[in-house]
Design brief:
Layout (H helix, E strand, L loop, with lengths): L1 E4 L5 H14 L11 H10 L3 E9 L2 E9 L8 E8 L8 H15 L4 E7 L3 H10 L2 E6 L12 E7 L2
Parallel strand pairs: 4-5
Antiparallel strand pairs: 1-2, 2-3, 3-4, 5-7, 6-7
């Protein structure tokens, strides 16, 4: 498995992966498919994008992880998002991605990494807990655009 910075070259593969996760449902609060331009702007090179790494095996993108600014977070905090293809879960891709993301966060002087996960996403909650993230906020009333209440859990990873 190769972990590398995401570039425009990978935007199409990342878009396909993310839209498949959205289509399957249950693990992301995103419920509207992304265009390639939106993935590029939001995760790779937009004004709030800090870094984005992808996990690749034999030219296939298994997943990606992005770190970015999120206006509601305190100074010195960055927000993380992890997207791993259903078929690649359990391969260690997410953990390998976090090593690269954490290094970049430290380089940028980040104090805390925030992860906000759907409360019904047990795989995602477990993943971030295994990495060392701890719960700090709960929003039981968070609902998807459809109106379905799924709640959200915010977890933090202290770097300093």
């Amino acid at each position: 498995m190769i972990i590398r910075p995401a570039t425009a070259t990978y935007a199409a593969a990342m878009t396909s992966l993310l839209n498949e996760i959205i289509r399957v449902g249950g693990t992301t609060a995103h419920d509207t498919p992304f265009t390639e331009a939106e993935v590029y702007h939001h995760y790779i090179q937009g004004p709030d994008a800090i870094c984005c790494h992808l996990a690749e095996v034999d030219g296939a993108v298994l997943g990606f992880q992005a770190l970015g600014l999120y206006p509601v977070l305190p100074e010195g905090w960055l927000d993380i998002g992890t997207f791993v293809a259903t078929a690649a879960r359990g391969t260690g891709a997410g953990t390998a991605l976090f090593a690269a993301t954490k290094a970049m966060a430290l380089e940028r002087g980040c104090r805390v990494i925030n992860a906000t996960i759907r409360a019904d996403n047990l795989l995602g909650l477990g993943f971030y807990t295994r990495l060392g993230f701890v719960d700090y906020a709960l929003d039981p009333d968070f609902a998807l655009k459809s109106g379905e209440k799924v709640g959200r859990v915010s977890k933090r990873y202290d770097l300093v």
